[in-house]
Design brief:
By secondary structure, this protein is α/β, with parallel strands linked by helices. It has seven helices and ten strands. One of its GO terms (biological process) is lipoprotein localization to outer membrane.
Protein backbone atom coordinates (compact mmCIF):
# COMPACT_ATOMS: atom_id res chain seq x y z
CA UNK A 1 0.00 0.00 0.00
CA UNK A 2 1.27 3.46 -0.80
CA UNK A 3 2.45 5.59 2.09
CA UNK A 4 0.14 8.49 3.02
CA UNK A 5 0.73 11.78 1.26
CA UNK A 6 -0.44 13.37 4.52
CA UNK A 7 0.00 11.80 7.94
CA UNK A 8 -0.99 13.89 10.97
CA UNK A 9 -0.47 12.52 14.50
CA UNK A 10 -1.43 14.08 17.82
CA UNK A 11 -1.94 17.54 16.33
CA UNK A 12 -2.97 20.04 18.99
CA UNK A 13 -3.38 23.79 19.22
CA UNK A 14 -4.62 25.96 22.06
CA UNK A 15 -4.61 29.63 22.96
CA UNK A 16 -5.44 31.77 25.96
CA UNK A 17 -8.31 34.23 25.89
CA UNK A 18 -9.63 36.16 28.86
CA UNK A 19 -7.55 34.08 31.23
CA UNK A 20 -8.99 30.82 29.88
CA UNK A 21 -7.27 28.20 27.75
CA UNK A 22 -9.22 27.28 24.62
CA UNK A 23 -8.28 24.03 22.90
CA UNK A 24 -8.90 24.41 19.17
CA UNK A 25 -7.40 21.06 18.14
CA UNK A 26 -7.10 18.20 20.60
CA UNK A 27 -4.88 15.40 19.39
CA UNK A 28 -5.98 15.06 15.77
CA UNK A 29 -4.85 11.96 13.83
CA UNK A 30 -5.51 11.96 10.08
CA UNK A 31 -4.05 10.26 7.01
CA UNK A 32 -4.73 10.97 3.34
CA UNK A 33 -3.57 8.47 0.73
CA UNK A 34 -2.18 9.42 -2.70
CA UNK A 35 -5.04 10.27 -5.05
CA UNK A 36 -7.62 10.30 -2.25
CA UNK A 37 -10.06 13.20 -1.82
CA UNK A 38 -11.15 13.58 1.81
CA UNK A 39 -13.92 15.88 3.03
CA UNK A 40 -13.29 17.54 6.38
CA UNK A 41 -16.79 18.24 7.65
CA UNK A 42 -17.72 20.42 10.59
CA UNK A 43 -19.65 23.54 11.60
CA UNK A 44 -18.07 26.97 11.79
CA UNK A 45 -15.74 27.18 14.75
CA UNK A 46 -15.01 23.45 14.84
CA UNK A 47 -11.35 23.93 13.94
CA UNK A 48 -11.40 23.07 10.22
CA UNK A 49 -9.51 26.17 9.09
CA UNK A 50 -7.03 25.83 11.94
CA UNK A 51 -6.29 22.25 10.89
CA UNK A 52 -5.76 23.31 7.27
CA UNK A 53 -3.48 26.16 8.36
CA UNK A 54 -1.39 23.68 10.31
CA UNK A 55 -1.17 21.19 7.44
CA UNK A 56 -0.47 24.04 5.03
CA UNK A 57 2.47 25.16 7.20
CA UNK A 58 0.94 28.62 7.40
CA UNK A 59 1.04 29.00 11.19
CA UNK A 60 3.15 27.92 14.14
CA UNK A 61 2.16 27.14 17.69
CA UNK A 62 1.06 23.54 17.04
CA UNK A 63 2.23 20.38 18.75
CA UNK A 64 2.26 16.95 17.16
CA UNK A 65 3.54 15.52 13.90
CA UNK A 66 2.75 16.54 10.30
CA UNK A 67 4.32 14.39 7.59
CA UNK A 68 3.83 15.47 3.98
CA UNK A 69 4.96 13.12 1.21
CA UNK A 70 6.97 11.21 3.81
CA UNK A 71 8.82 14.24 5.21
CA UNK A 72 8.35 15.56 8.74
CA UNK A 73 7.24 19.15 8.18
CA UNK A 74 7.24 20.37 11.79
CA UNK A 75 11.04 20.20 11.94
CA UNK A 76 11.56 22.40 8.87
CA UNK A 77 12.86 25.94 9.16
CA UNK A 78 11.10 28.89 7.49
CA UNK A 79 12.84 28.31 4.15
CA UNK A 80 12.10 24.60 4.26
CA UNK A 81 8.41 25.28 4.90
CA UNK A 82 8.32 27.69 1.98
CA UNK A 83 9.84 25.07 -0.32
CA UNK A 84 7.41 22.44 0.97
CA UNK A 85 4.42 24.70 0.27
CA UNK A 86 5.74 25.53 -3.19
CA UNK A 87 6.65 22.02 -4.28
CA UNK A 88 4.16 19.76 -2.47
CA UNK A 89 1.03 21.76 -1.68
CA UNK A 90 -1.72 23.62 -3.52
CA UNK A 91 -4.28 25.90 -1.91
CA UNK A 92 -7.87 26.87 -2.75
CA UNK A 93 -9.76 29.23 -0.45
CA UNK A 94 -13.37 30.38 -0.14
CA UNK A 95 -12.35 33.66 -1.76
CA UNK A 96 -10.21 33.26 -4.86
CA UNK A 97 -7.43 35.76 -3.95
CA UNK A 98 -6.55 36.28 -7.62
CA UNK A 99 -4.27 39.16 -8.53
CA UNK A 100 -6.66 41.76 -9.99
CA UNK A 101 -4.23 43.26 -12.50
CA UNK A 102 -3.28 39.90 -13.99
CA UNK A 103 -5.23 37.89 -16.55
CA UNK A 104 -6.54 34.41 -15.81
CA UNK A 105 -3.59 32.74 -17.51
CA UNK A 106 -1.09 35.07 -15.82
CA UNK A 107 -2.52 34.20 -12.39
CA UNK A 108 -1.89 30.52 -13.10
CA UNK A 109 1.52 31.13 -14.68
CA UNK A 110 2.90 32.93 -11.62
CA UNK A 111 3.45 29.92 -9.29
CA UNK A 112 5.10 28.07 -12.17
CA UNK A 113 7.56 30.90 -12.72
CA UNK A 114 8.31 30.98 -9.00
CA UNK A 115 9.34 27.34 -9.37
CA UNK A 116 11.63 28.34 -12.26
CA UNK A 117 9.58 26.96 -15.15
CA UNK A 118 10.28 28.62 -18.49
CA UNK A 119 7.77 31.23 -19.59
CA UNK A 120 6.72 29.06 -22.53
CA UNK A 121 6.21 25.92 -20.45
CA UNK A 122 4.37 27.89 -17.78
CA UNK A 123 1.97 29.43 -20.29
CA UNK A 124 1.30 26.06 -21.92
CA UNK A 125 0.62 24.41 -18.56
CA UNK A 126 -1.65 27.27 -17.43
CA UNK A 127 -3.60 27.27 -20.68
CA UNK A 128 -4.03 23.48 -20.52
CA UNK A 129 -5.44 23.62 -16.99
CA UNK A 130 -7.77 26.53 -17.71
CA UNK A 131 -9.00 24.89 -20.88
CA UNK A 132 -9.69 21.69 -18.95
CA UNK A 133 -11.85 23.80 -16.63
CA UNK A 134 -13.81 25.28 -19.52
CA UNK A 135 -12.00 28.62 -19.56
CA UNK A 136 -10.08 28.30 -22.80
CA UNK A 137 -11.94 31.30 -24.17
CA UNK A 138 -11.27 33.42 -21.05
CA UNK A 139 -7.49 33.17 -20.77
CA UNK A 140 -6.82 36.88 -21.20
CA UNK A 141 -9.68 38.12 -19.02
CA UNK A 142 -8.92 39.72 -15.68
CA UNK A 143 -10.73 38.58 -12.52
CA UNK A 144 -13.13 41.54 -12.66
CA UNK A 145 -14.28 40.31 -16.08
CA UNK A 146 -15.04 36.81 -14.80
CA UNK A 147 -18.02 35.44 -12.90
CA UNK A 148 -17.61 34.12 -9.37
CA UNK A 149 -17.56 30.55 -10.61
CA UNK A 150 -15.00 31.37 -13.29
CA UNK A 151 -12.78 33.13 -10.76
CA UNK A 152 -12.85 30.08 -8.52
CA UNK A 153 -11.96 27.83 -11.47
CA UNK A 154 -8.88 30.00 -12.07
CA UNK A 155 -8.00 29.54 -8.39
CA UNK A 156 -8.31 25.77 -8.82
CA UNK A 157 -6.02 25.85 -11.85
CA UNK A 158 -3.50 27.95 -9.92
CA UNK A 159 -3.56 25.45 -7.03
CA UNK A 160 -2.81 22.56 -9.39
CA UNK A 161 -0.24 24.37 -11.53
CA UNK A 162 2.83 22.86 -9.86
CA UNK A 163 1.34 19.35 -9.70
CA UNK A 164 1.12 19.27 -5.91
CA UNK A 165 1.01 16.02 -3.97
CA UNK A 166 -1.77 17.49 -1.80
CA UNK A 167 -4.37 20.19 -2.42
CA UNK A 168 -5.86 21.93 0.62
CA UNK A 169 -9.25 23.55 0.02
CA UNK A 170 -11.02 25.64 2.67
CA UNK A 171 -14.74 26.03 1.83
CA UNK A 172 -13.81 26.30 -1.88
CA UNK A 173 -17.43 26.82 -2.98
CA UNK A 174 -18.66 28.65 0.12
CA UNK A 175 -18.94 31.98 -1.69
CA UNK A 176 -21.00 30.61 -4.60
CA UNK A 177 -24.69 29.94 -5.12
CA UNK A 178 -25.79 26.31 -4.92
CA UNK A 179 -25.85 25.60 -8.65
CA UNK A 180 -22.49 27.24 -9.31
CA UNK A 181 -21.02 25.51 -6.24
CA UNK A 182 -22.10 22.13 -7.62
CA UNK A 183 -20.54 22.86 -11.01
CA UNK A 184 -17.26 24.20 -9.60
CA UNK A 185 -16.92 21.33 -7.12
CA UNK A 186 -17.51 18.77 -9.86
CA UNK A 187 -14.81 20.42 -11.98
CA UNK A 188 -12.47 20.59 -8.99
CA UNK A 189 -12.92 16.91 -8.14
CA UNK A 190 -12.53 15.85 -11.76
CA UNK A 191 -9.33 17.81 -12.32
CA UNK A 192 -7.75 16.79 -9.01
CA UNK A 193 -8.35 13.14 -9.94
CA UNK A 194 -7.03 13.64 -13.47
CA UNK A 195 -3.90 15.31 -12.12
CA UNK A 196 -3.34 12.49 -9.63
CA UNK A 197 -3.22 14.75 -6.58
CA UNK A 198 -4.75 14.07 -3.19
CA UNK A 199 -7.00 16.65 -1.53
CA UNK A 200 -8.30 17.61 1.89
CA UNK A 201 -11.42 19.74 1.51
CA UNK A 202 -12.94 21.58 4.48
CA UNK A 203 -16.67 22.21 4.23
CA UNK A 204 -19.76 22.59 6.40
CA UNK A 205 -21.93 21.26 3.54
CA UNK A 206 -22.62 17.55 4.00
CA UNK A 207 -24.29 17.27 0.61
CA UNK A 208 -21.06 18.35 -1.08
CA UNK A 209 -18.90 16.32 1.30
CA UNK A 210 -20.68 13.11 0.29
CA UNK A 211 -19.39 13.56 -3.27
CA UNK A 212 -15.81 12.94 -2.11
CA UNK A 213 -14.00 9.66 -1.50
CA UNK A 214 -14.16 9.77 2.28
CA UNK A 215 -15.65 11.97 4.96
CA UNK A 216 -14.23 12.78 8.40
CA UNK A 217 -15.97 14.97 10.98
CA UNK A 218 -14.27 17.52 13.21
CA UNK A 219 -16.14 18.34 16.39
CA UNK A 220 -14.76 20.43 19.25
CA UNK A 221 -11.21 19.93 18.01
CA UNK A 222 -11.37 16.17 17.57
CA UNK A 223 -12.05 13.90 14.62
CA UNK A 224 -15.04 11.58 14.90
Amino acid sequence: MNDPVLDVRGLARSFTQGGQTIEVLRGVDLSVRPGEIVALLGPSGSGKSTLLQAVGLLEGGFSGSIRIAGEEATSLDAQGRTVMRRDRLGFVYQFHHLLPDFSAVENVVLPLLVRNASARDAEERAATLLTALGLGHRLTHRPSQLSGGEQQRVAVARALANRPALVLADEPTGNLDEHTADVVLAEFLRLVREEGSAALVATHNERLALKMDRLVRLHEGQLQ
